[in-house]
Amino acid sequence: MKLRYGTFSYLPDLTDDEIAAQVKYALDHGWPVSLEYTDDPHPRNVYWEMWGLPMFDLAEPDGVLAQLNDCRATFPQHYIRLLAYDAALGRQSTAMSFLVQRPAHEPGFLLERVEGPDRTQRYSVKSYATARPTGDRYTGE
After folding, report:
1. 10-residue block means of pLDDT along the chain (141 residues)?
2. What is the pLDDT of residue 139?
3. Helix and strand tally (H, E) in the chain?
4. Which pTM value belongs to this model?
């Protein structure tokens, strides 16, 4: 199973040159860029761990790519996403978000159905990866 998350999720994984082009687009629009990582990609897990601080006042994508490579080296089996923020009109909102790394093996999700009162159906989604401890979820598979 391949996790579909954010912009470009149905395209093949982006190369570093394609990531640099998207970062350049964001910087040209004045959007600061940040990197986040996680080993629990549950659809409702929107708060990932931040890698460093958001990168403001960059003109070229080289600084972002250097930080991305450091993050990849530190977390080779985690999901890493790149975010660009638009602070137009005095509000901070996400203008672009996409995965720049995923584990080699993505175990997928379990959809659990529970019958409630009056035969109502309730559903929950569980990541198969969370059955293993944090930091060990994507190793040895």
Report:
1. 78 92 94 92 84 90 95 93 87 87 81 86 80 70 50
2. 64
3. 2, 6
4. 0.80
Amino acid letter for position 10: Y
The tokens for 121 are 């159906």
Phi, psi values for residue 72, rounded to 5°: -60, -40
Rounded Cα distance, 52 and 69, in Å = 13
**Residues belonging to the chain:** 141
**Looking at residue 19, what is its pLDDT?**
95
Report the distance separating Cα 65 and Cα 55, nearest Å. Answer: 11
CA distance 35 to 81: 6
Sign of the dihedral through C-alpha 71, 72, 75, 77: positive
